[in-house]
Structures are given as structure tokens and as C-alpha cells.
Amino acid sequence: MTKPIKQIHLAAHFPGVNNTTVWSDPAAGSHIEFDSFVRFAQTAERGKFDFLFLAEGLRLREQNDAIYDLDVVGRPDTFTVLAALAAVTEHLGLAGTINSTFNEPYEVARQFASLDHLSGGRAAWNVVTSWDAFTGQNFRRGGYLPEHQRYDRARSFLRTAQKLFDSWHGDEILADKDSGVFLANPTPGEFVHRDEFFDIAGQFNVPRSPQGRPVIFQAGDSDDGREFAAADADAIFSRHSTREAGQAFYADVKGRLAKYGRRYDELLILPAATFILGDTDAEAADLAHEVRLAQVSPQTAIKFLEQLWNRDLSQHDPDGPLPTVDPVVGENVVSRGRASVRMYRDPVATANEWRAKAQAENLTTRELIIEVTGRQNFIGSPATVADRINELVQADASDGFILVPHITPDGLGPFVDKVVPLLQERGVFRTDYAGTTLRDHLGLAALQSGEASSSVAS
């Protein structure tokens, strides 16, 4: 039996604060002025993308008990930006990362229900936890939670929010072309939720929105994060964008769905990915090298190094060899509150791998960091990039990609103008939007009143 051809899902991430964006490039613009968000969103919509993704940051970046500013600082409020973008877009989904560790369910549910109404059913919530004590200092509750407690609270948070979304009732569900799905004669219902994390009761003050609830995203890569996604999420952000790693992650997470009574197609796997385009593959490769040099400055290289070594390396020479001392294993000392060093399950083994690579290829510390933190997932001519994206999706390494350009806000334009038409010609990407809601774009079944995913409803 021939396997059906999958349709590719594409989204765009407005990068904000990180070292992906090359702010020194003359083409780079503001990451906080509204015009930048508008241009980025409207480019994504012109490309018929599923959604725009905006990350939330409740803190500035810290390391070694100090704020550091390698690129640019400042993180505007997610809801404010997405609500404003709802007025200047018509079809594009609006996805925002909102923290479940330091926010409260009633407030977040009210904001997302409002955004779903304002956008006509295009809201999505990336449910994340917070691991660091720096963020905790910004809130009355303070501190931070161990990993298992963070996910326990996140599950309770989402379950509570779902009760609020579903608390309004009506005589019947009506479908309307212009305003989406709504309840006739809606009436507020009471809600009660009491557990170890929340003790709330009352009446929700926002009627049921066009999607019923926002599309739920999750971004955790730990076992707890994967389990949370399999139980409750509509899509999961992944960092596994290569074929082998992507296929392993895809099979693992989708293999967990059955025990929650969910089908294989009820959860989308969407890795983040960057791209570098050139008229030829060789031209793109040269540009990719220049971009990496701009992304990983000497100071940035040291910060990445510290995240593995788990010690202060501010005096280390980025143009010299790797440190001869081993990483500090155990409690994290460079970023307070994190249970383990950044993404490295065995820091000493990883350090030894880096040393072997640096010695074999005669790499300095900075050159090594550029190699191991490579962010260009797709490099080549438009045809090469289109073929590679389609190959990975059809091979079940992902269901699509969340693209992160290295120039903000106009870096998405070349992809939309040159790669999207090729995907459309291959019949693997839409030529126009077929529905009005984000659930339509993602191919997810519409929710009826009171319906929720298995874990949340339990």
C-alpha cells in the first residue's frame, strides 16, 4: 500500500532575544517596534503559513548571577503583541508562549479566550514551565520548582484552564462563516478546581470562543515533557531537525498517544529550523559560514561553553583550546535553579567529545562552538531547501517546521518568495487557506462544547 503524501505545515518564529538574529546586519530592524511584528506576520500570511510563534520571556538573560547582553535585550508582552496582530492579519494563527509556573489559570484562560475571539479563532498557547530562580525573583511566590513539580503544576494549570474554557453553555452550537463557531444564548457556568496547586471557584467572564479553547503547544524534550505533550498537546515544538534524530523523536512521542486514547494524527511534531538561501548551494554555504561567525561572537562562545562546563570561564581565551578541566557535575551554578546543565545529560562525556573533535579538526574554542551549536538547518538553493524539507516530512522526521530567520523582520521574505512556490508546485503545501481557524490550518478536528483532550478532562 502506497503511503499517502503528507501536507507540510510551516510556521514562523519571531526570534526576539537570542543569538540567532544577526542584529549587526544592515538589514536588521527593531525587535520591539510594532512595525517589525506587522511586516513579519504579513509576510508569513502571504506565504500561507499556519501560524506565527512569539516566545514569552519573563526575565532578561542571566548567567553567573549577572544579566548579560550579547545581542539585544527587551521582551514585550506576548498577549499585547498578538492581540494587535489579530487586527492586521486575517488567516494567520497567533501562537504565544505563556508560562504555567508563575502565572494563574484564570488570568491566562481569560486572555487566551479573548485573543481567540478577537482573532476569529486563531489563538494558540505554548504551555511552558520555568526552571530558574532568576525568574522567580520577579514574582511574589519566588523561587523555582523541581522538574517533576513543574510539570505537575503545568498539568493542573492546563486542566484548570480547560474547565474555565468549557464553563459557558448554550442551547446549540452554531457555525458562521465570518465569526466562526459560537454558542446560541450563551450562559456562564460555575467552575470549581481544587488540588495541591490551585483552589479556585467562581464564574468565568469570557464566553466560549470560536475554537472552544486555544490550540495547545508544548516544547519540553524531557520524558515528562514528552508525556505531557502526548497527553494534552495538539502540537509539540522540537529541537530534533535532522532525519535520524527527528524520526526517533517523532516515533517516541507519537508512540505515547495510544495510552491517552489519542490517534497518531492528533499531535503534530514541528521542529524549529533556520535556513540560508543562495542562488546556488555553494553560495548558500559561504553565506551560512558568514552568518555563523556573526551569530557566535567570542563572548557568545564563552557563554555557550559555560553552559556545558557549569563554571565561570570568563577568563578563558575563545581563540585558544578548550578548557583542560572537566565540567562541574551536579547542581547548576551558572544558571540558578536549573536541575541539569543546558541540554547535556552527561556533561563530562560531551566535553570529551568536543575535545576529540577540536583536536581532530584543529579547532579553537570559538570554532568548536560554531560547529556544535550550528543553527542553519537548511542551506542551499531554493530547490535544494524545498527538496530537503519535503524529504524530512515525508520520512516522518517531522510534520513541518517552525522557521527562524536570522534577519528580523524581513528575513522570512526570501523563503516565502522562493521556496514556498516550489513546495506548492510539488503539491505538498497549500496554495490558499481552506478554513478560518488555526485548527483548520493544522488539520485538527474541531472541538465541540465540553470536549477536551483525555488527560485534561480527567
Automatic annotation (TrEMBL):
The keyword Magnesium does not apply. The keyword Membrane does not apply. CDD domains: Nitrilotriacetate_monoxgenase. FMN binds at T97, Y151, S222. Gene3D superfamilies: Luciferase-like domain. Keywords: Flavoprotein, FMN, Monooxygenase, Oxidoreductase. SUPFAM superfamilies: Bacterial luciferase-like. It comes from the Bacteria. Residues 24-395 form the Luciferase-like domain. One of its GO terms (molecular function) is monooxygenase activity. NCBIfam families: FMN_nitrolo. PANTHER family: ALKANESULFONATE MONOOXYGENASE-RELATED, C2H2 FINGER DOMAIN TRANSCRIPTION FACTOR (EUROFUNG)-RELATED. Belongs to the NtaA/SnaA/DszA monooxygenase family. This is F420-dependent methylene-tetrahydromethanopterin reductase.
